Amino acid sequence: MNIAILGDIHANLPALETVLAALDARGDIDATYHIGDLVGYAPWPNETVALINARGIAGVSGNYDSTVALNYKHCGCTYDDARQEALSHLSFEWTKSHTSVDAKRALGELPFSLTLRPFGGHAAGPSVVLVHGTPTLNTVYWHADRSDDFCRQMAALMSLKAGDVTVFGHTHKTWHRVVDGIHFVNAGSVGRPKDGDPRTGYVRLSLSAKEVEVEFVRIPYDVHAAAAGILASTLPNEYAEYLRTGGTRSAPADSPPQLPRTE
Ligand SMILES: [Fe+2]
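^ thats the input. predicted complex w/ fe (ii) ion below
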């Protein structure tokens, strides 16, 4: 059984469309899920939510989803870089004001976590638990350098046992580690990778009653179309360069944060 998981899409419609077309073309995917952060940073929040819903792709609530849905004061994003921190506030205000009532309602209805039993609850086989950040908060970053003990603590909160899988995102960087037989998988980001690789992508879980295989698939997409959409919007122009460079460069370090243009 093959399950595809889509990491942080962040309103990048060209990237999402490319991933969905790739999944359709391979023809061996039994189910597709997302792990939240459907909106933010790119100019297609409503189209992204509509496409995810039209395709019947279930998923969980990212910090961006829950805070936009509630018109909260802050997206819960954290940046070491003060410049990116300032820009993130601009993106959040833009997204709150450009996301429709219907889309906000859909974002607000996303569950905090999802537990899958791909082989049925009556049969042996792995459980797969989806969360955005961690099982306690969707704003906590679960980076690859977290200790094995941290992973064990999170696994206990999700009642995971050897052979089970948890998939999460939020950091926009893929990684996979096995601790005590439990698979910990960061799905990376469909629409805003931060690992220096601007390609989009997804995670494929290949599951049998006793085996778990994890594959990170990266796909080129029309990043220039995504960048052009940002430049044509009133989002910070620097997000276009961010996408083109896979999150490694957004603007010269000495230039001030760009303020949003008025529409
Ligand atoms: Fe995110």
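Residues 8, 10, 37, 62, 64, 170, 172 surround fe (ii) ion (CB under 6 Å).
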